[in-house]
Amino acid sequence: MGFACGIVGLPNVGKSTTFNALGGHAEAANYPFCTKDPNVALIPVPDDRIDALARIVAPDRVVPTSIKFVDIAGLVRGASQGEGMGNQFLSHIREVDAIAHVVRCFEDPNVIHVDNRVDPVADVATIDTELILKDLESVEKRLERAKKLAKGNSPLEKAAIALCEPLAAHLDSGKPARTFAAPDDPHSATVLREMWLLTAKPIFYVANVSEAALADPFADRHVQALAAHAAKEGASVVPISAALEAQIAELDPADRPEFLKSAGLSEPGLHAVIRSGYELLGLATYFTAGKVEVRAWTIKKGWLAPQAAGVIHTDFERGFIKAEVIWWEDFVALGGEARCRDAGKLATEGKEYVVRDGDVMHFRFNV
Question: Is the whole model's pTM more than 0.85, yes or no?
Answer without folding.
Answer: no
